[in-house]
Write a structure and sequence with these properties.
Blueprint lengths: L4 H13 L4 H8 L7 E3 H8 L3 H13 L3 E7 L2 E7 L5 H6 L7
Antiparallel strand pairs: 1-3, 2-3
Length: 100
């Protein structure tokens, strides 16, 4: 299942709103394999954001309907669990321009 138009548009708008997120989306696009999860450390390193802002970005990605933020607490890092059928590489590649 590919991204819906609404999801694609939501990620595009997030990219405009959060310019630092571009590093994360570029990282996702360049991945060799589709990953089911992306940790907060990866988000933090790829985007250049601090931990708190990386978690905020993850929550905004969750609101786009392409992933869920899970984990955290008890020594476990928070992570994005990409929804079934969502190729995280597609989020990096196919959401850099508006639909229209």
């Amino acid at each position: 299942m590919a991204l819906t138009d609404a999801q694609r548009e939501a990620i595009y708008r997030l990219r405009l709103k959060k310019p630092n997120a571009g590093g994360l989306f570029k990282h996702l696009a360049e991945m060799q394999q589709n990953r089911r999860q992306t940790s907060v450390s990866v988000v933090e390193n790829a985007s250049g954001l601090n931990r708190a802002l990386a978690l905020e970005l993850m929550r905004e990605i969750e609101q786009a309907g392409v992933a869920k933020v899970l984990g955290g607490g008890g020594g476990q890092e928070s992570y994005l669990a990409w929804n079934d059928g969502v190729d995280c590489r597609e989020i990096g590649k196919d959401t850099d321009a508006p639909l229209r």
